[in-house]
Amino acid sequence: MKQLLQYFFAILLWIAGIVLWATGVTFWLFGALLILHGAELLIVGYRTGRKFGTSPLKSIVLCLLFGYIWWLPVRRAMKADDLTEADFVEDGKEPWREQVEV
Amino acid sequence: MKSVVVLTDAPRVNYMHNFVILPYYYGTDRYFDRPDVKAIRETVQKNLDTLDEHTGWKEVFRGRKVLIKPNLVAVMHKSGNDMDDVPQSTDPRVFEAVVAILHGLGCKVTIVEGTGKGVSTTQLFRDVGLDKVAKRYGCELVAVEEQPVDHYYVPKAEVQKDVYIPRVFSQVVHGEALYVSVPKMKTNLYAGVTLGFKNAMGTLSGNMRYRNHSWQIEKKLVDLLYLFKPTLTLIDAIIGGEGNTPAPVDPVKVGMILSGTNSVELDRVATRVMGIDPNELALTREAEKRGFGDHETQIVGTMRVVPFRRAESSFLTPRFRKNWPNVKLFTGYTNDRVPKVTDINAVTPEMVYELEGACRGGCMATMSMYMEMLYKGKKKVDPAKVRFAAIIGDGCEVDGKRYWFDPDGKPYDIAALCELKKTYKNVVGCGACCKATAEACTARATGCGNVGEFVPLFIKATGAFVPMLSPDNEGVGNLILGMARKYFAVRKVLKTGDIVEIPFDAWDDRIFPIPELSEEDQKKDWIYVPMEKQTKKQIRKNLKDYKMIQAG
Q1: How many Cβ atoms are within 10 Å of B142's Cβ, its own excluded?
Q2: Which of A8, A54, B327, B390 is least enclosed by beta carbons within 10 angstroms?
Q3: For chain A, which residues make up each domain, given as ranges?
Q4: Inter-chain contact B16–A96, Cβ cutoff 8 Å?
Q5: Are strands B249-260 and B232-245 parallel, antiparallel or unpaired?
Q6: What average pLDDT score do residues B219-247 get?
């Protein structure tokens, strides 16, 4: 839900940037978003998307549109799945099981 | 095929990673080299090879069309529960291993599943990663709620005589395809356990799924066996789930794979593994009574018992009363499923518990599910603040008057129930049968166990949202996206003149009749009833009536 709200605000920001540019107030909100997200795309976004299995086009669109609010959760999800041999050693401990009085 | 049940122990590996969704690198060497994946694939292979040695199932399946059904529940990764992953759905690693074996036999595999109302199965396939599995093995993915339905009469059925099933399952009914059920080993509020043939609930779509989803649920599920039954069932008991499914459950490390050619007998063995006497379950008794069991079943492997905590479809158990001390239930029934009350002053708490049990598979299960969802939420609700009264049942008739009883056995007539409003801000009437208590209630659910009706009612009564609908559910975006996808997919089917739903009658506690049949027809397991295509006017109406968010 939090991420959905973030996406929503990112879109609002883009709309504001376009409106400000179109009405001649300033180009720089739109420009800053484009430069920032473009840089993120080149440095980390595209690579992250492709590694995660997202299509090239989808990776480009999502990163340009949302920037780090898209690629950061993807990286976090990938990190959670990056396991080592030690993670698969059975420790014999039960997972959390509720104790109920019989 | 001969009825055989095979139990295979999995190697001692930690299986607690990715038992809900596949990792992002599924399909690569990195995935297949993982110790847990290797162990699961080897165990499934060993299990099914042993089953083949005793039954020859592989020859039956070779080159055939196969429908394979997992058990997917819309509780995905980080769904707002106290644990990030909850063992509700079939482990995708196990499911993938079965698909790989069927693919190796040259089967044309279709992955088919249907989840509850309001949730898109197509989206769940994606969330779990089964879309990647389908792509790898060239399988078709079918969401039953997006399928047109076919109509059948089931003359031998006790409850579900008139049934509509998704068209894809007609292939199984007519012998054109085989059906493989791959459920999860877990306890369940509605039927006690969810195993091989309880998994068939997900083969019904929308309103049909909820028709007679009440105290008759066991009969309803057994009725389906006349129509079609799994040729092969494999139970994922790598990580089991104990507690109150469909609400979140706790994981149990069982480390076992069970398979069989008779789902009733396999369920019987699996129930024993869970530490539950199968004869205690109405589901097993009903299947046995109708002759779907097989006493000649051969059991291969060691039966290791791993006791599961049972599902508690009750507001009267010590656990419930400890968790929700300010929720009070008033119950009373007059029917042949509960003891008859003759003296209102001699009702004990044990008798009240029995009275409450008149509809454990209906309203009680739905109510218990909601409360358990709250209890298992990431953000804990203060139990002291959850304060309401719930009324179920039509009342116990004693000397021409109706009475409901509190947990201690104290009797309340309708006038006394009306007084509850002075003590409780919310007095909730639950289900069609408590119609007579309408004046005592501040709000009432009029249908039988109607989840859509109960949720808003309980949100109001408890003042708390279920985690799945809260901001804590990280998958809420996908949930909404899935609803939109489903909406357009169903509209596409409706435009062709087919129907995907039965009329909304699901919450009536009655048996839906079929026309009088000839003696010869009465002996048949099923009768196909051809349906005419909808007229243009009907199509327009169907499209208009179909809403993205369906209440009820």
Answers
A1: 22
A2: A8
A3: 2-82
A4: no
A5: antiparallel
A6: 94
